[in-house]
Amino acid sequence: MMEVLFCTWFIRNNDPREAVDRIVKGFRTRVDVGAIGSESEESHYFINVADIHLSAKAGYYAARYKRFGNLCYVIGALQAFMSHNNQDLRIKVNGGEWEACPQVTALCIGNAKYFGGGMKITPNADPSNGEFEVVILQDFKWYDFILKLHKLYNGTHLSVANVVSRRAHSIEIEDVSGSGKIFVQSDGEYLGFLPRKFCILPSAIQMIR
User: Fold this and answer.
1) At what angle do helices 71-82 and 54-62 cross, to 10 degrees?
2) How far, in Å, are 1, 11, 22, 80, 184 from residue 16 at the CA level?
3) Which of helix, strand or coil describes residue 147?
4) How far apart are CA 24 and CA 62, in angstroms?
5) pLDDT in the model for residue 5
6) What 8-state DSSP symbol labels residue 82?
7) How far is it, in rounded angstroms, from Cα 173 to Cα 169?
8) Contact 113/155 with Cβ under 8 angstroms?
């Protein structure tokens, strides 16, 4: 699924002949990769989106419902909300000072735009510009998720109250309570819990485009 979502950044149309022609001619581009580090584990890498708290927990549950196609993420999100509480986090962007992020519902670090069965969660992300787009959802209730789901899918949620977007080439994230129970995932893979540090690796790999 994540490979398909990342390919949406490359696709110009659905003509298979054009795709073959581009492969034969070898049109290439370099793209960024995200790296995730922690004190106790080896680094992980991602090319689409890494996410924290509700969205990561939803992805963890959604893996159980893949037989429902793209709806699996909606089902997973609803199940995750049943045991969800917004949490106070703190972040350090680009090596600066620690900043408070109260009542975070989800925090998404986008190298590319899409995750969660096609949600355009980081709509301004570009995997060739050397930066993440970081989108933070704060103080969402379960009904906010239902009412604003269409905006999350079409990428128009940045105008919604309690949604913040910013640029970063590195971001460290910690749980203020130190509970060790804030989920982390990247490209649909469950990675464990906070704290974590995310860094961009500019032009790290070459791809046919």
Assistant:
1) 120
2) 19, 11, 10, 39, 36
3) helix
4) 37
5) 47
6) H
7) 13
8) yes
How far apart CA 135 and CA 125 sit, in angstroms, is 10
Per-domain boundaries in the chain: 2-208
The highest-level CATH class for domain 2-208 is mainly beta
122: which DSSP letter?
S
Alpha carbons 4 and 118: distance in angstroms, whole number: 9
* Per-residue model confidence as pLDDT tens digits over 140-180: 998 888 899 899 999 999 999 999 999 999 999 999 998 88
Q: Which of 144, 60, 150 is nearest to 103 (CA)?
A: 144
Contact present, 152 and 144 (Cβ < 8 Å): no
Which tokens go with 142?
């379960």
Find tokens 């070459």 and name the residue. 206
pLDDT score of 63: 83
Amino acid making up residue 175: D
